[in-house]
Each structure stands twice: as C-alpha cells, then as structure tokens.
Amino acid sequence: MERQIFKYNQPFELESGETLPELHLAYTTFGKMNKDKSNVVWIFHALTANSNPVEWWPGLVGEGTFFNPERFFIVCVNMPGSCYGSTGPLEVNPTTGKRYYHHFPLFTTRDMVRAYKPLKEYLGIDKIHIGIGGSMGGQQLLEWAIAEPELFEHIVPIATNAQHSPWGIAFNSSQRWCIHNDATWKNEAPDAGIGGMKIARSIALLSYRHYETYAASQQGYTSDTELLPVDKQVSKAETYQYYQGEKLAKRFNAFSYHFLSLGMDKHNVGRGRTSVQMALSHIKAKTLVIGISSDILFPPAEQETIAAYVPNAQLVIIDSYYGHDGFLLEYESITQHLESFIGSGKPPIPKGGKEMKPPSPKEELSAV
C-alpha cells in the first residue's frame, strides 16, 4: 500500500465556471501494474470515506479478498472537497494565502472525474480492467464510463443512480440545513458547524439504514437505564444516533460534508447530453449493476433504470437488512457476483439468491 499526493500545477476549470489555480489529489495504490497494463482496478469511494478501501471495504479489498493486490493494480483517489488529503475547504487557497472555508468552489461528480484524468495519465494507465464504486462512488464511475467509453473494460456501479433523486436531495439539503443553523457555521475555523454536522449525520443514518436494521440491532434500552422509571430510560436507538454523530465529528468536518453533499445533489449524467437514457447508452464497458433490496436512499428502481439503458448490462439485487450501507457490508454476496461476472463470465446469481442475515457488529464499518 502506498498513499501519495498528485499535484496538478495548472489551472483547473470547473463546471460552475470557477477556476482553481492548482489541484492536488491524495491517492492510494495497491499491488503492481503488469507488463501489458491489463490488471488495473479503479475503486471510487463514497461520501465520507478516504483513499484506502482496505479500511472501509476490508471484505473486498486486500490479501485474501477478490481485489487482491497480488492479482490487481488497485487505485483509489480521495475525491476533491474531502478532508483526507485532496484539495478541500480546509486547504489554503494559493491565490489568497488563506483557507478556503465557505469560499471553496463546488465540485460536481463530473468535475471530480475530470480531475482524475491527469492522475490516470501520470500513472501510465491506458485501460481500466475494472471500475467499481458504490453510492457517490458509483455516480463518479458512471460519469467517467460515459465520458470515456473506451477506458473501462468492466464497470460495477453499486447502490447508485444516474441522476440524484429529489428524495436524495431532500435528505442532503436537510442535513446542510442542520449545519447552517449551527451558530458556529459562520466562523472561519476548522470546527465551524461541527455540532450541526453531528445532527446531520444522525439524519443521514436514517437513510443509510432501514427499519429492519434498527429493529434487529437497536431494540430496547441501554443496560444502565432499563430498570429506571420510564421517563428516565434511554433507548438504544437514541444513543446510537448520538454515537454516530460524535463518531463522524472525530474524523470529518462540516465544510467537506456541506460541499460533497452539494456535489452529489448536482449529479446528472444527462446534463448536456440530451438525456440520462442517451448518456447511459454510450457506455461500452461490460456492466454489472448491483442494488440493495432494502436501500431507501438509492432504491433498486434506480439501478433498474441504469441496467435498462446501459447496453447489455446485467442487474442483481442483493437481499440485505442493512439498507443502503449494504453496499459496504454485503461483501460476501458482492464477491460471489464479481466472481461470476469477472472471473468466469457466467450470468450473475439470480435475484433473491442470498439468505438475509440479521445485522452484526460489522455494520460499524459504515463509511458512506
């Protein structure tokens, strides 16, 4: 594993018309590229993850997994706007000599993909054998497969969509509202809006999970309060929401959360390309679309749309209690489908072919 910083010392124009004087990207590579450059895998991370998929996708990436560095040359880039090494709101603006903070420009998923192209060339990558990503990572994957139809041999978009839905935008805008109503948000400080972000994250969890997830893992009350009078009891579900907000606040900031969620809202592969359907029809890569049955944020209907318009795409829906987070946690089932799709070329496992299992402690790996 090797994490590096790629510097692009040229002006970078965004869809908005704004121009950055320079750009840098944090990226991690695993394994080595073979002589004919035919073993490249590009992994796209979701909203608050980083460039090391071994940390947030350990069941799929690393020794002994499907994406084994002994077999593949794996690349993962921290998306611009994040706080894990790439150009982001807490970085210093070279023009002003001050941190961007609220003045950071909007990166759409299309901007992000365009930012990755110079890195791809720097790494000497001519062809990507497999592109894979879930959620916002899947959005970027679709955008790139449309922009450069000859680049990918196989793509696996998971729990994602071709255009962000009004439902998804509503969730994101409500979360940003929480941040904006934090009295500290107006401050030019790294921790500005962090209290609002904690609440935003608790809202996000409701969209990442599912009724059954909470029913199976958050029933009842905390052990130290269940014997108290009813008005003094504290439910596990309540403490879990607080826990998730505090957990994210230890590793993320409200500025990145704000701008990345806004970038997700602007995702639309059909923008400037006649229509979403027309854009998807330009994809030439062999495509396996994976959905999660209980996903309420990116429901299976959105993956069905992708599969309907990408030529010869295959579609599988994985049954899961985990909701949207199933794309991170159902790695055993995803591996089976990847082996079928990439390894042998056989049709994927039929829909409903995996028994649903109750949530387990692995759900804490969530990095959406």
Structure description:
This protein is an alpha/beta fold and about 375 residues long. The protein folds into 2 domains: about 260 residues, Alpha/Beta hydrolase fold, catalytic domain (Rossmann fold), CATH 3.40.50; about 100 residues, Rna Polymerase Sigma Factor, Chain: A. About 35% of the residues lie in helices and about 15% in strands. The protein is built from 12 helices and 10 strands. The strands form 2 sheets. Strands 1-4-6-5-7-8-9-10 form an 8-stranded mixed β-sheet, with helices on both faces. It is globular, with a radius of gyration of 20 Å. The two termini are about 20 Å apart. About 5% of the residues have low confidence.
Mean pLDDT: 93
Question: Distance N terminus to C terminus?
Answer: 22 Å
Helical stretch tally = 12
What's the oligomerization state?
single chain
How is the biggest beta sheet arranged?
8 strands, mixed
Active site: 135 (nucleophile), 295, 324
Pathway: Amino-acid biosynthesis; L-methionine biosynthesis via de novo pathway; O-acetyl-L-homoserine from L-homoserine: step 1/1
Protein name: Homoserine O-acetyltransferase
Domain AB hydrolase-1: 40-329
